[in-house]
Design brief:
The complex is a heterodimer. Chain A is mainly alpha-helical. Helices cover 73% and strands 0% of the residues of chain A. The chains are: A mainly alpha, B alpha/beta.
Chain lengths: 469, 307
Amino acid sequence: MAFIPQYIFILFVTITVDYFAGIGFESVHGSRKKWILLASILANAGMLGFFKYFNFANENIAALANFIGWNYPIESLEIILPIGLSFHTFQSLSYTIEVYRGNQNAERHFGYLALYVLFYPQLVAGPIERPQNILHQLHTEHRFEYQRVTDGLKWMAWGMFKKVAIADRMALFVNPIYNSPTEHQGPALAFATVAFAIQIYCDFSGYSDIAFGSAQVMGIKLMKNFQHPYFAKSIPEFWRRWHISLSTWFRDYVYIPLGGSRTGARRTAINLLITFLISGLWHGANWTFVIWGGLHGLYVVLNGFVEHGWTRFRELRFAKRFTPALDGISLLTTFGLVSFAWIFFRAASVNDAFYISANLFSGWSGFISQAVSLIREGVHYGLWGFMDGTFATLNSLSVLTRSEIILSGAAFIMLVYVELKQHRGNFIAQFNTLRPAYRFVYYALLIAATLALGTAYTGVEQAFIYFQF
Amino acid sequence: MLVIALTALTIAGIFLATPPDEKHLYQASLLKSDLLRTTPSPRIILVGGSNIAFGIDSELMESELDFNVINDGLHVALGIAPLNEVQYFLRPGDIVIISLEYYNFTDLDSFFGQPQYLADWVEFSGERINFIHQPYNQMPSIYTMMLQRKVNRQLNYFLYGFSYDAGRNFYSGDLFNKHGDFIGHLGESSGTPFEIAESVYPVNLLDEAFAYLEEFNQLAQSKGAQVFYEAQAHRQANCERTGERQLNRFFNLLRTRTTIPLLTDIDELCLPDDYFYDMPYHLNEQGRRIRTERLIESLRFALEGTK
């Protein structure tokens, strides 16, 4: 992944093709429209396919040829993936599809279409916008509005905190373990996997918050890409809350055209699996991502089988008494399944992922007895001794110092607090009702915490995870 | 404005409440700065990374040559920042011996210094920000990293009762002698206490680095000082893995791109593996003595040539 100036040509080609395709849709009728759509899809998908999937496909064909003893002469190309290619290709495609479907008028001004595809805040990692939401906003004049601008800045500050103070900090736990998983046992692997679940959420939603806020500062309202996904109580609900712009893109342009849920249970299951497998492949040209997508597809299909029974059970008078507990079970189960799938997303190879999955439950008895003895021994020395034992237990899972563990905990508590507040209502609107003096103190603390809790001092550069897609 | 003032106040509070770590390796940089400021000329100033700190016996040099000797070597990750500091304190008659590690020539960050390490170095003496390459560009990241380190350190003081640094081991700022030589490893010369990786020396060629060294040479000469280049300490096994051709390539380029005389003959670069302590450029006591003797000999020869 890199920014190479010549790659701007790719964007230029995409925009030009889609510009003329859009105008073409409004000038022709019948099957010729389909040909134009096909040309646009081929141009867009061709770029993506070449840069992102050529080597992947080529290596797999070569491996297969080698397996059956054929001589395969085509070598992999030394190409670098243009930054944000998957995102702006999908955004551009959504324009042509929507114009083709008649949901959006063709954009006659090349500059506006270019701005729609290149809109800086969300160019490299989304949200993948729809023309109906953005194009008309780009045509509107936006005057300075204090509240809008300051609210945008608040989103940016919060997104920055999530990325710098939480995601990057979680990476300190995750990277050493995932870089050499075979050196670790179940507790450390599970710990790193949960830490990665937090890392990727804060990393990606942090970017989306920054994109949302910076667009809002300029007067453009982007769609929300995340709605507290780890509060989801089922996998379908998770996907209604996670990377919403991508999941709705796949729903509208892949799942529904395949027949959606209107073609019987078996066909629906196949449609779901196909959609999630493609979604996995969209994330990266690696079998780990395909398996990750496949796992989620499987989860959603299986959910369809158990959902009805689970809903009926919950409607029983007996079960209603335990609603909070059952909600908690649903939430934890969903989080557990999502976290398990993250193993395949994060692991460096399929082998690593299988090793981690297979060893997730190994070594727990030793860890638990060690933890119990450390903490029990510590308790004899009072609260401080208890803390000492707890730290010693946590230290056995990672190489981090106590200060790093404490700072991660502090940042995580801030995250949970704000997420809960946001989940229960419009947090920023509530926050704006506070007296200015209090608000200013909170802003100052948030900025200071972002600076102080960051991990730049480790010297490890932490790009946004989704930049690689 | 109020938000900025409050943020600044909070951060200032953390800065004021957290002094530098007194056991940090860079604590020794205060001694070295003091030596640069106060040692009378003529002097020999050895600059470089830890290959100099570990590998030079300044007392031996001082007794053999008619110069005061300052060992300004500290840590490879500081790049040429200490060299910029030396430049500030140069006086007529001074001799500067530069001995950077190959690692410094791998990329610009390694040559000009890595911000996360420079942050610690500046923490010990605020005015050092002026010795950093492109200080105004680097300031935000350096002070942010310093803040993060301070927060971690403050917490570790609270939790452990001391500033805990897992990587420190014997790399402590109070293990330097009055010349600035690291002495924490002396007396451990028998046997090999650490297993040293037989890795390749990263002999890269960085144009900006040679240009900078030549610029430094010209400036030093304009102040009446002389500059020499001494190769880093070389371990035989790592020399063999790197290859003679590669090593020669580096020094040939140094000769053609700069006018800095090279002290030690390239054929004598590589020392037996037994002379090394914990890294392929950290000499032990025996190696340190041999290297210093060779350096004294080379320097005598070079100085006679310049007379």
